[in-house]
Amino acid sequence: MKKFQQLNYQRPDFKLFEANFNHALNEFEYASSAGEQTLAFKMINEIRSHFETMMNIVSVKHSINIADKFFEVEQEFFDEHEPAYRGLVHKFYEALICAKYRDSLQEIYGKQLFTIAELTIKTFHESILEYLQKENQLCTDYQKIIASAKIKYNGKVMNLSELNAIKLSTDRNIRREVSYLVDGYYEKHQDEFNNIYDQLVKTRHTIALKLGYKNFVQLGYARMLRSDYDSKMVANYRDKIFSEIVPIVNDLKIEQQKRLGLCDFYSYDEAMDFADGNPKPLGNAAWIVEQAKTMFKELNKEVGDFFEFMTKYELLDLETKPNKAGGGYCTFFSELKAPFIFSNFNGTSHDIDVLTHESGHAFQGYSSRYWNIEEYYFPTYEACEIHSMSMEFLCWPWMKLFFGEDANRYQNAHMQHSISFLPYGVSVDEFQEWVYENPNASITERNNQWRLIEKKYLPYRKYDNNAYLENGGFWHRQSHIFKTPFYYIDYTLAQVCAFQFWKRSNANRVDAMKDYIRLCKAGGSKSFLELVALANLKSPFEKGTVEEITAEINDWLQQNKIRNKVTAEV
After folding, report:
1. How many CB atoms lie within 10 A of CB 164?
2. Measured between alpha carbons, how far is residue 98 from residues 44, 94, 114, 226 in Å?
3. CA distances to 54, 81, 317, 398, 499 from 389, in Å
4. What residues are paired with 330 via a beta bridge?
5. CA 6, CA 52: separation in Å to the nearest integer?
6. C-alpha distances in angstroms, 263 versus 257, 417, 455, 514, 538?
7. Nearest to 225 by CA among 121, 105, 104, 74
8. pLDDT score of 569
9. Rg (CA), the chain
10. CA-to-CA distance for 318 and 229, rounded, in angstroms?
11. What SS3 state is found at 318?
């Protein structure tokens, strides 16, 4: 295998690809034996693997530099042709469900493939092709606005990730000033964001109606391949987070305000854990990677071998730079059997969060590479996030490598951030459900609803007279709302599972790692709740699960209170 920068990319000839796909599909449908059908199945997966690998290479290259004209054009090509590709896969799924030798295929690959096929069939028809293309283009338009941010501060032009690092200054005036600059960028583009999202909502609602759904909610769940829970179960789970977690987080924020020595507490103070400054990694990106090699090697041999593979073939792009898309993610080049990690390091503790998080995703993809089937390289999203969020906690014993004497303070802050995330995560989900149940709501009604939900789950949040945020503009910066509808409750479900891995690793690290690796190797071969059971975890929907984890975390936080190194100044 070549290093990432040396990988060959060639735009697929879509007509030739389509012809080859249909030929393989014909072989599949008219196979005269189970063996022939299995060979045709493998042929289809090989054809798909090449197309998806080229598509993912383009996505990564475009993310790394949205100003690169070549890959901008290539991204446009895939935005246009991905829906047609999805249509071909839809035809394959129809044939798969009716396969003459289905029992043989199911014996080899398991029932989850057929569940995925049945759900996916409900999400596509040729009549929606142009709407899917429009949806892709609108999501790309949103990403361009975020990635093209160039904001002048202190004589230097910065992007959003660089400014977010400065927002952690111990000088409150600087935090306030930089927050206003970031908020100002979103406010300046709010009409564009609102217009893009309004078109997305109406486009998705139209797609849902054409496919026979009442609205996009059920279609959104089908797109997310949720087979063993529904929106009612999620609503009950959100209620549980509201009753059990919101009061705890509210108390934590009161303690945080006292720790910071502040008379009032605003949104730009929330990320500041200690008056004397949050823990920071003791070196740059290259140094962090070297420490991570040691950490992963000592954590587990298989994890260590995986990270050596990632660094050897330069399958990480970690540092923030001009024209780079925001956020962090992990993707997979199936033809190469290789994951890729994308991030925006900015010199804060978030660098370690994102490295351990995305490494959890990547290790799972690396562990599942032997499946040789697109549907199984990654599981459904909520299961995916178990691997990533659990890895964050499994790496805790090695935090001294990155933070030195601040390791305990990092762990304390990380735990508080993790539990504080749950109310925000469910608020994003509740907002999206309301939006798609009310697709004709005005932009003002939509923003007002966000602010109502925000006040419900984040009662401590105050915006210091920032009219844009007070009027419900914060959601504009949550890319999942635009790009992957209903992908957010997944993080909270996985967080509850990750807390269980944290608890179990404290009691018996060896057994916890065995279950974690078994989970990773299963890839997407089972549904969410089946994977939870495979890992010997309790379902987040099960009565008592949230309460049990809440009690454990509360005890830990009380026993591990970390104070400022110096006296806080108001």
Report:
1. 20
2. 16, 7, 10, 22
3. 28, 33, 20, 16, 9
4. 341
5. 18
6. 8, 22, 21, 48, 41
7. 121
8. 38
9. 24
10. 35
11. strand
CB-based burial label for 316 (10 Å; 0-12, 13-18, 19+): buried
* CA 132/CA 138 separation, integer angstroms: 10
Which residues are within 8 A (CB) of 135 and not within 5 positions of it... i.e. 6 or more apart? 200, 203, 204, 207
Give the span between the Cα atoms of 363 and 338, in whole angstroms.
10
User: Do the Cβ atoms of 50 and 335 come closer than 8 Å?
Assistant: yes
Specify whether the CB–CB gap between 40 and 103 falls below 8 A.
Answer: no
- 54-69 pLDDT, tens digit per residue, is 999 999 999 999 999 9
- Model pLDDT for residues 478-490, shown as the tens digit of each residue: 999 999 999 999 9
pLDDT digits (tens, 9 = 90+) for 33-90: 999 999 999 999 999 999 999 999 999 999 999 999 999 999 999 999 999 999 999 9
The tokens describing 528, both together, are 């969410």
| Assigned token pair, 281 | 């990694």
Residue among 300, 297, 215 at smallest CA distance from 517: 300
CA distance 488 to 216: 16
Quote the CA–CA distance of 383 and 222 in Å, as a whole number. Answer: 15
Type of residue at 213? Y
pTM: 0.92
Report which residue type is found at 276: D
Angle between helical axes of 216-223 and 190-210 (0-180°, round to 10): 90
pLDDT at 566: 54
